[in-house]
Amino acid sequence: MFHIALFIAFLYLVWRLVLPLPYSRLSKVILSLFLLFISKYHWLQLWIWGNMFSPELPTWAVLILGGLFAGFVVLLLLTLVGDIIYLIRRFILRQKHAKLTTSARFAIMGLSVVLTVFGVHQAIQVPDVRTVEVPIKDLPAELDGFKVTHLTDLHVSHLFKHDWLNEVVKRTNDTQPDVIAISGDLIDGFVENRLPDIDAYKELKARYGVFMSLGNHEYYYDGPAWAKTFQNMGMHVLENAHQLIEHQGQSIVIAGVNDEVAERFHLEGPNLTKALNNAPTSAPIILMDHRPKNTRTNIQAGVDLQLSGHTHGGMIIGFTEIVRAFNQGFVSGLYKVGNGWLYQGNGTGLWNGFPIRIGVPSEITVLILKKAS
Asked: Has this prediction a pTM greater than 0.90?
């Protein structure tokens, strides 16, 4: 469906943007073929490497190809906006001579280039630290101020390499958290291809440890192998499991569930009942679930705070609404859901196949638990 949608987008851009340009037929053919290549970039990855998430190419090539695809999406969005304005002028405002002019088409292409260069530059930066207070109902006074630093969607790859991860780890450790919680998608690629870049994960430090759940991208590249690798690096990998933390005489539960894509690889999918088996019901529960899809069900089952990723915050203002529609209304930030909360992270990194951020920054998030008034 993804590749079909991109082919339709390609046809739309050729129809609305390329064919009306005052160029020769050959020039239009070349431009159309260029757009076709960009739109089929991920399909070509799938054909060459067997997946479309981690091309084993030099960093400069990954950046250029991913940036071109991001530019394709920006061009598509701006062309759609141009056509919506045209339709409003033509059929609502009754402006009979309204049309998408040649100068407007050049403006759309020029603005696409500017926004893409800016957005790609923003996407590959080391994220700033964001602090969010979360009021928890019936939180014991001893847990007031408990600090959880949340990372998600780091996607270490040939785009986000060891130098970037080293700085992320330094900034994370500087927050001096009680717990570090990572809600999946730490990598893109198989273990043997990523080992040179992930050494810094060993340096993550928190008072009570580093906890993580697996995201869909770990499962794409042998989830069990990645779980073992992260365990060997000192992380607590919670696969439908929980761990009890004692802090100043009070307990707090840190739990994690598997991503639903695990079932595609004949592995166990998300199972909250199993994850919380024998967990004390009186203790606050923090759950790592890579996707926000099951938030409402999880909170109804007693979760006080869910930490999720997967959406990357929507990446581009406006595009956020499309991402929201595919994620049960959740895209970025703190949401009150029933008697609990969801923190939906923007992501610490980004998938190398769509490396762009416009108005939706990546983040390292410090969540401070507070007693609800």
From this structure: yes
